[in-house]
Amino acid sequence: MDLIKLTRPQIDTLGLAAYYKLWAGFKSAGTVFDYSLNGNDGIVTGATPAYPGFLFDGVDDRIAIADSDSIEVIAITMIGWIKLDSTWSNVGYLIAKMDDVAMGGELAYGLFVAGDKTLRTIISSDGNITTSEGSTSQISEEKWHQVAGTYEFSNELPVYKLYVDGVLVASDGGGNATGPIYNTGTGRLTLGARFDASDAGYSFFVNGFLDDLRIYNVIKNTAQIRSDFEITRGRYGV
């Protein structure tokens, strides 16, 4: 009798710039591995493994990744899983890339949950802090959700899209961004925070759990985002 070998569906790896399977724990003491194999390993401050992810305290926990060519992208898909703490009330960034300079830094891109628990993205085409764009529906607390954001400058127009649990929740022009994503700075990538060492007033930390954070240098469409949600949701009891 012939045996049928079953294979588990895999996430899409085309265009991966950085990938953090936080459920896998530390690579070594204080560091997490970049599973895109682009060498963007992260240095952990405060955040602790709490399967299936890492717990961030909302005060100063973060993971810092040094600037590299692979995370300087002109179009982007940011994706990850988040579980908000029941006390969530402030802005918390899953992903942010920016420099340490006065007045909040030179920003490239970011994906965050606002204090009102709506998903938002912020993109700059010149390094200046710009207004964010976002959804109006709230993300529930104490439950895992997959969130994703995309941005591209297509046909001379900026376009962003936001997704929660594989469903498109917002799509519009790109706020103040007027071109490709800014990438002439040397800013670090930070997970779990938008961290500005020069001005604490411009730092915003996640209060809750994060996992499976990815950055792509290509745009993933709605069907691909939905497929990713279906492939990964089992780990989070969703």
What sequence of helices (H) and strands (E) makes up the elements?
EEEEEEEEEEEEEEEEEEH
Helix content: under 10%
Strand content: 35-45%
The N- and C-terminal alpha carbons lie at a distance of 37 Å
CATH classification class: Mainly Beta
What does this molecule look like?
Helices cover 5% and strands 43% of the residues. The protein is mainly beta and 238 residues long. The chain has a single domain (16-233), classed as Sandwich (Jelly Rolls). β4 and β5 (53-57) form a beta hairpin. The longest helix has 11 residues, at 222-232. The model has no long low-confidence stretch (mean pLDDT 89).
Quick structural gist:
The protein is globular. Strands 1, 4, 5, 7, 12, 13, 14 and 18 form an eight-stranded antiparallel β-sheet that branches. The chain has an eight-stranded antiparallel β-sheet with strand order 2-3-6-15-8-9-10-11, with no helix packed on it. Strands 16-17 form a two-stranded antiparallel ribbon.
Characteristic key phrases:
mainly beta; 43% strand; 8-stranded antiparallel beta sheet; single chain; 238 residues; Jelly Rolls
Explain the layout of strands and helices.
Elements: E1 16-20, E2 31-32, E3 42-45, E4 48-50, E5 53-57, E6 62-65, E7 76-84, E8 92-98, E9 107-113, E10 118-123, E11 133-138, E12 144-154, E13 157-164, E14 167-173, E15 188-191, E16 193-194, E17 204-205, E18 207-216, H1 222-232
Antiparallel strand pairs: 1-18, 2-3, 3-6, 4-5, 5-18, 6-15, 7-12, 7-18, 8-9, 8-15, 9-10, 10-11, 12-13, 13-14, 16-17
